[in-house]
Amino acid sequence: MIRPVFEPESLPIESTGASLPVVAAERLTPEGLRARFTQRLPWDPEPQESRLTTDMRDPRNAAVLMPLAMRESGLTVLLTQRADNLSNHAGQVSFPGGSVEPVDPTPIAAALREAHEEVNLDPARVEVLGALPDYLTGTGFRVTPVVGLVHEPFSLAADALEVADIFEVPLSFLMNPAHHQVRLLRWEGGERRFFAMPYSGSGASGVAASHFIWGATAGMLRNFYRFLLA
C-alpha cells in the first residue's frame, strides 16, 4: 500500500473539541484514575476510519506505555520524539513501546520492557492501572495502550538509536478537548482525518520546544479522554 507523504502541521484544522465537556479535575489525580479503572462504566472509543477496521490484514501486535508521572504540580504524560532513522513513525511523537515479542507474556509486559529499553524507565516505578482498547494504526499495528502511574524518584535516559528527545506534557492539557484538533488530508480523491494536539514545552534538556502530537498517539490520548469522561 502506498502511503501519502505530507507535513501534518501544514494541513488545515477542520474542527476542535472546544465545545465538548471537560474531564472533572478529580479524575486527573492518582486517586481519581485508580477509581476510574476499577469502574465498569460504559463508554465508546473514538471511531476509527473504516479502511483500518475492514481492510487491514493480520496486523502486528504491539503495546505502548502511557506513563503518567506523579509530579508535585500534577500528573504529566511522558512522551518521546522518535529518532529520524527509524523505519516506522520516524521523527514522530510517541509513547514508549513497540512490538509484542515472544518473550513477553502479556502486552503489559511488552509495554514495560519497551519503556525500559527506550527511556530506561524502571518497571518497578510503574503502577499499572490498566489498558485501553486496542488501537489500529495505518502502518499495520494493533496497539494496546497500557496506562501506568510513574512514582518518583525515577530517572530517564533516551536510547539514542530510537529516541531523539523525552518530554512531559501536563495531563490536564491533553485531557482538555479544546486542545484536540481534527486535521484533514485530501489524497487520491479521498479524505482522511486525524487528531492533533500541538504543545509547546521543554524537553529533557530543559530547552523550550514545540511538539506536534498527532496520529496514533493523539488518537490514543483522545480515547483516554473519552474513557475518563464516562
TrEMBL record:
InterPro entries the record matches: CoAse, NUDIX_hydrolase-like_dom_sf, NUDIX_hydrolase_dom
Q: Which cofactor does it need?
A: Mg(2+); Mn(2+)
> Which molecular-function annotation in GO is an example for this chain?
coenzyme A diphosphatase activity
Keyword Magnesium assigned: yes
UniProt keyword list:
Hydrolase, Magnesium, Manganese, Metal-binding
**Segments forming domain Nudix hydrolase:** 59-191
Output this protein's name: CoA pyrophosphatase
Organism of origin: Paraburkholderia dinghuensis
Traced from the root, the source organism's taxonomic lineage reads: Bacteria, Pseudomonadati, Pseudomonadota, Betaproteobacteria, Burkholderiales
